[in-house]
Specification:
Blueprint: E1 7-13, E2 16-24, E3 30-36, E4 39-47, E5 53-59, E6 62-67, H1 80-92
Antiparallel strand pairs: 1-2, 2-3, 3-4, 4-5, 5-6
Pfam family, one: MORN
Subcellular location: Cell projection, Cilium, Flagellum
Keywords: Cell projection, Cilium, Flagellum, Repeat
């Protein structure tokens, strides 16, 4: 799960991203948490450039449990679908 322009700071096991890590997407969104087999797996938090955060438990790259109790969440960001749409759009937009 490595995107062009992303940065990974963490451990590797057999050449795969695994263990405690920080993963920075080209959009400057950061994931801080556990990785397994190159995917978000375990407890982890997405930090957005806007200052919002998304705390979740991940399994093989997918959210299985989420906490939206942070007071800095906006209404739109409380929707996992909106979160995914915004992140997908921001990683695919053209630069220039």
């Amino acid at each position: 799960m490595q995107y062009t322009g992303s940065e990974y700071i963490g451990e590797y096991v057999d050449g795969r991203m695994e263990g405690k890590a920080e993963y920075i997407l080209p959009t400057e969104t950061r994931y801080v948490g556990e990785m397994k087999d190159g995917m978000f797996h375990g407890e982890g938090t997405l930090y957005f450039p806007s200052g919002s955060r998304y705390d979740a438990i991940w399994e093989k790259g997918l959210v299985v449990q989420v906490s939206l109790n942070s007071p800095i969440w906006t209404h739109l960001e409380k929707s996992p679908r909106a979160l995914m749409t915004v992140e997908m759009a921001s990683t695919t937009r053209s630069r220039g």
